Structure formats: structure tokens, C-alpha cells
Amino acid sequence: MYCSNCGVKAAGNFCCGCGARLASAAADSLPVLSLDWEHEVSYETLLQNAEVRNLIARHAAQATERMSGEQFLELCDVAFNPLVGVSLEQLSRIAAPIFGKLGVKTGKARKEVIPGPVGKVLVGVLCSLARHGRKVKQAHQADNGCIVEAILPAVERLIVETGAGKQPATAPAL
Fold first, then answer.
1. CA spacing 20 to 30 A to 141: which of 24, 47, 78, 117?
2. 153-168 pLDDT, tens digit each
3. 42/50 Cα distance (integer angstroms)
4. Torsion sign across C-alpha atoms 34, 39, 44, 50
């Protein structure tokens, strides 16, 4: 079993990595849910499902620590500052707003329609975020779907919209 909070492999009632109550220990307090979570629209209901929590935890356990652009610039400053005399990190802080005002776009945009049941698409997105070490900022629940906001590096933004009914689930990345 994996901890649904930090993704560490654990046994017993509490996680040895973060101290959170493990899913099996908390199972007594959770309501019994149907096994057909693939068509579920509710974000909270999906997260209460033990199978979904285990899927997300397995992906979280595979996450690796990545270097951000800011961390890379700090390393470059340590290595090249004596040679160049200018901090690349400070230079990037000055250049970014200027590029923005000039209309230079450094981001990427992608919009994709993912056919499939809403719950399955939403859990797939949550598993992908967990595998890449990204955290969910918040979820906005609606009657026919939800919007998930994730915390990503400065150059990436992700907003996931899922919907039920005639419209398929969509995952636009802005």
C-alpha cells in the first residue's frame, strides 16, 4: 500500500514518511462507494474512492525531483558569475517583463479533447500530475463536471475542465 498523502510505500495505520493516516486505517470512517468511478463527476467523491487514491499514490511514488528554471539560473550564477560579472537570475527578472511588453510570447498552448468517461479522464489527469510531482491548487465543482487548477513551474499553466453529458471531457492547457 502507498500513502495517499506523500506516495511512500507504507504498512500499518500511519505512514512512516509523513505520519498521515493510511487509507486502510481510515476506511472505517469513509462511506462505501460504488466501484464504477469512471463516470463519477464529483472530484471529492473520486478522492474518497480507495482504488482512485491507490492509483494516485502509485503514480506519486514514481515522481522524481526536477530542476526549475530558477534553480538552473542559480547554478549558472555560481559557475559563471565570476567570469561574466552579471547574475543571470537578475537578468531574467528584468528581461521577462520587457519581453512581455514587447509582445514576445515564451509559453506554449495546447487544447485537447480526450474522449472517455469524465471520472476516468479526471483520475488520469490527477495521476499524471502526481507522477510529475505537481500539486493540485484547488478544484471548482460544478453540477456536470469540475475545473482543476494545478501548481506548475512558472512557464507552465494547466487548467483542466471536465464535463458530463453531451460534451466530452476536455483538458485545455493554456
1. 24
2. 655 555 666 665 544 4
3. 15
4. positive
CA distance 113 to 58: 26
Q: What is the pLDDT of residues 63-122, one digit of tens each?
A: 887 777 778 888 888 887 777 777 887 888 888 888 888 888 766 666 777 788 888 888
Cell 471536465: give the residue.
162
Tell me which residue of 59, 10, 42, 16 sits closest to 140, measured CA to CA: 42
State the DSSP string of 126-164. HHHHHHTT-EEEEEEE-SSEEEEEEE--TT---EEEEE-
Q: How far is CA 74 from CA 21, 28, 38, 84, 136, in A?
A: 37, 48, 44, 14, 26
Domain boundaries, the chain: 69-102
The C-alpha atoms of residue 145 and residue 141 are separated, in whole angstroms, by: 6
Decide if 157 contacts 145 (C-beta within 8 A): no
Instruction: Note the helical H segments in the chain.
Output: 23-26, 43-48, 50-61, 69-84, 88-102, 118-131
